[in-house]
Write a structure and sequence with these properties.
This protein is an alpha+beta fold. The protein contains 4 helices and 8 strands, in the order E-E-H-H-E-E-E-H-E-H-E-E. The protein is about 30% helix and about 30% strand. Strands 1-2-3-4-5 form a 5-stranded antiparallel β-sheet, sandwiched between helices. The protein has a 3-stranded antiparallel β-sheet with strand order 6-8-7.
């Protein structure tokens, strides 16, 4: 792992949101999001809680991870946003985000993504990626608002996805 990058902020407040490194308290929200994915999930709440603990430990080592999104002064998470290696790399990670259905359409993903992008570039990284299913118009809108542009597309066993790219401000 490159050690020339600073650790990303694991606690970020925006005008309406509070983003914190996920813990097992985020497991119920994450399980709801996993159940929405094509094919759903067979994971139990206990298994998702364990995943949250493991992801939290990995974030502490890697210096970036997924942050649970809460509306300011509320306890229950409404989604997550953060950096993952995913299809990217340690030096050029991917931004990832998901919001529970009942909270979509209010600009929360856009607000959270903006805060995470700023925090990511503050670590010294020069480029971020996002890979988005070609069908996912809402995610393309969020990324376009933050200066991402299409780089190329690929296909995996499930579908076509577009590699979106954003470079650090000069």
């Amino acid at each position: 792992m490159a050690d020339h990058f600073r650790t990303m902020a694991f606690s970020i407040d925006t005008e309406r949101l509070s983003l914190r490194l996920r813990t097992k308290d985020d497991a119920e929200c994450n399980l709801k999001l996993l159940r929405e994915h094509e094919g759903g999930t067979t994971l139990s709440l206990d298994e998702v809680e364990q995943r949250m603990v493991e992801q939290n430990k990995r974030a502490q080592v890697e210096g970036f991870g997924l942050l649970g999104i809460r509306r300011r002064n509320e306890e229950r998470p409404i989604g997550y946003c953060g950096l993952i290696i995913g299809r990217g790399s340690f030096d050029e990670p991917e931004i990832a985000y998901e919001i529970l259905p009942q909270f979509r359409g209010h600009g929360y993903a856009t607000e959270a993504a903006g805060a995470v992008i700023e925090a990511a570039f503050a670590t010294g990284r020069e480029r971020l990626w996002a890979t988005v299913g070609s069908w996912n118009a809402p995610s393309f809108r969020v990324l376009a608002k933050h200066g991402f542009h299409a780089h190329h597309s690929s296909t995996d066993e499930r579908s076509e996805f577009v590699w979106m790219e954003r470079t650090a401000p000069a």
